[in-house]
Write a structure and sequence with these properties.
By secondary structure, this protein is mostly helical. Helix content is 31%, strand content 6%. A three-stranded mixed sheet has the order 2-1-3. The radius of gyration is 19 Å and the shape is globular. The model has no long low-confidence stretch (mean pLDDT 89).
C-alpha cells in the first residue's frame, strides 16, 4: 500500500488485509543497514531513507507509482516486458524499473543471498516472476533512542523508549514484544519500591 508522507517520494508498506484474500501473497524482504557504523553521522539513516524514497519516486515515473521488477530481473539484470504469473497490485500502480540500481550495494548483495534461502523454506518465494515492489523504507526508525540495562532512556530516568518509532522493532509483532518487555521492566521497577 502507498505510504508516502512527503511530496516527491514513494514509500511502500507490505501490509496484508486481515481476511488474507489478496490476489498475491504479501511478504517483505527487509535488510538491516546501519549508516552510522559505515561512517555516517547521527542523521545518516534519515538521509538514506529520504534518498531511497526520492529514488523510488524517480524510478516509478514521478507520479507516485512504485518501481517494481521481477526477481530474476533484480538478480541478473535487464527488464523484460511481461510480469509473468504474478501481477503487481500496488495502488496507484507500478512502473517496471531496475530497483537494484537505486539501492546500496550491500542491500542488493544481501537480497541476492536471502532470496534463494527463503525459496528453500517457502516454495515459490524466489520464483523468477516473483514481483519486488519498492521501497519499504519505514519498517523501523532510522534513529535509535539509546536505553540502558533498565530499558530507560540513557540520561532520562522514567522514560522508556520502545517499539518501531524508537528503533527497537521492525514490525507489529516485534514492537508488541518489545512493549511487553518494557512494560514488565516498569512493573518490576515499581514493585521493588
Amino acid at each position: 500500500m502507498a505510504s508516502s508522507s512527503d511530496e516527491g517520494t514513494v514509500v511502500t508498506n507490505g501490509m496484508s488485509y486481515s481476511d488474507r484474500r489478496g490476489l498475491n501473497a504479501n511478504a517483505a524482504l527487509l535488510v538491516g543497514v546501519d549508516p552510522v557504523q559505515e561512517g555516517g553521522g547521527l542523521w545518516s539513516g534519515v538521509e538514506l531513507q529520504r534518498t531511497l524514497e526520492k529514488t523510488a519516486y524517480r524510478l516509478g515515473g514521478g507520479d507516485y507509482r512504485a518501481p517494481a521488477e521481477r526477481w530474476d530481473e533484480f538478480d541478473k539484470g535487464g527488464l523484460g516486458a511481461d510480469w509473468g504469473r504474478v501481477s503487481p497490485t500496488y495502488l496507484p500502480g507500478v512502473t517496471k524499473a531496475p530497483l537494484h540500481e537505486g539501492l546500496p550495494a550491500q542491500v542488493v548483495q544481501a537480497m541476492r543471498a536471502a532470496m534463494p534461502a527463503f525459496g528453500r523454506k517457502i516454495k515459490g518465494f524466489d520464483a523468477p516472476d516473483s514481483v519486488l515492489t519498492g521501497y519499504e523504507t519505514r519498517s523501523s526508525s532510522p534513529i535509535r533512542v539509546e536505553r540502558g540495562e533498565d530499558l530507560a532512556a540513557l540520561g532520562r530516568p522514567g522514560i522508556y523508549p520502545c517499539g518501531e518509532g524508537c528503533g527497537y522493532a521492525g514490525g507489529i509483532m516485534s514492537a508488541a514484544v518489545d512493549g511487553i518487555r518494557v512494560a514488565q521492566r516498569i512493573i518490576a521497577a515499581h514493585s521493588e519500591r
